[in-house]
Amino acid sequence: MDILLHDVKDIAQFVKINRDEITVISDNGSIKPCLCCYGCWIKTPGKCVINDGYNNMGTLLSKCSRMIIVSQCFYGN
Question: How many Cα atoms are found within 13 Å in the side-chain-facing hemisphere of 64?
Fold first, then answer.
């Protein structure tokens, strides 16, 4: 399984994606920042305690053979 992780608004205009072969992860406004509570280590190993729809990220990353990161680049910040 491949993972495409991106923060580009309309990535479809740049990349042709076959959703059967690749898992696409993008921020739709619901991703919450890490609280550094270590709940994913202690309380629920491998699963984030924040219920924002991305709490299975550890499982996805452990099963992927390739991860592609596409991100905007801002000069000076």
Answer: 18
